[in-house]
Amino acid sequence: MKYDIKDISLAEKGRLRIEWAAKDMPVLSLIKKRFAKDKPLAGIRIGACLHVTTETANLMAVLKAGGAEVALCASNPLSTQDDVAASLVKHLKIPVFAIRGEDHDTYYAHIRAVIETKPHITMDDGADLVSTIHSEYTRLTKDVIGGTEETTTGVIRLRAMAEQKVLKYPIIAVNDAKTKHFFDNRYGTGQSTIDGIIRATNRLLAGSIFVVAGYGWCGRGLAMRARGMGARVIVTEVDPLKALEAVMDGYDVMPIAEAARIGDFFCTVTGDINVIRREHFLKMKDGAIVANSGHFNVELDLEGLKEVSTKVREIRDNVTEYTLKNRRKIYVLAEGRLVNLAAAEGHPSAVMDMSFANQALCCEFLTKEAKRLKKTVYPVPEEIDQEIARMKLDSMGIKIDQLTEEQEKYLSSWEMGT
Fold first, then answer.
1. Domain with 269 in it: what CATH number?
2. 185 annotated ligand binder
3. Which residues pair with 97 in a beta bridge?
4. Residue 418: pLDDT band by 50, 70, 90 thresholds?
5. Quick one: which of 20, 114, 121, 234 is 20 to 30 A from 105 by CA?
6. Which residues does substrate bind (predicted)?
7. Are residues 175 and 194 in the same domain?
């Protein structure tokens, strides 16, 4: 079995951490039991490009229990947990190609190693796997029945491919499932981003001014958690509806150019490029701390920052100090990559339980339905979303009401009025 990881001797530590994560992933555990019995993925090869974390390891175990052959690479150079990669190789015999801190060339070499296993289903987080297949391995697309996409950034890229008629196989936007983005993006990103910022800096948030760039589900969660830590939160937005919602939620809203002058902490969660640019860095006060929790580090104009700096140094783990020409110092966390994964451990297992349950069930759906699907991006089937929500509630010991026959009839009719 081919693989490329940092150190196989880390496997036992990884196994214990994977076991710990599994204790808070009851939905995935239920799916694993059914998959082990029914083998719905028998004969299917799955190529996955995901953050190599304890939660991802539990998803890989479910897919393998379902009969799939799985190969895994990292979807970000700084998100790999090396002990988890080692455990997947040693204990589950899954080919893993991921090393924390790998350079650009190694990152793409690992993606190509997964592609060369000739997957029937792709599982992506950011669409680098899909885009590499479409640009370098088009001959293999005839054997791919479908794929899934985990994150907002990837869905944006894949929808652009579909609109331009270049997408070669159907993709299910797992990111858009209600049991994914309502929980993973809001509660997961909110908590884990704050966790990453605090681990990297050990700075007090209470009493500070915390600027959140973007008020999508990730931004909502981050703003909520920053306020909960006692920070005064400022939101920057380009969408008038989201900006209005932020105002109605009680946050200050202003352009980034204004927020740059007064913020103590900045974090981007937009999925777009150059959200904080050199002109904004030049306006920041001495000691400002800048992070990104969007999928790619392009949200921060780091080249522009470097050009207006006279000195760059690592002052502590995951903190780079830029001394500007105006002598002020700006601190960038985790090289501008996902601070929640690069400086912390990513989302809590409880929310990834639902996200990865969507991944597993969508793979099963693709094996059954891919032949009737067009080469475009699809939402997660409503019945899968509902099933995951029901299983999560059951695991929490929560009961809910059911519609009576009279209520169902009323909701499906038009004749009855006041």
1. 3.40.50.720
2. yes
3. 4, 73
4. low
5. 121
6. 53, 125, 150, 180, 184
7. no
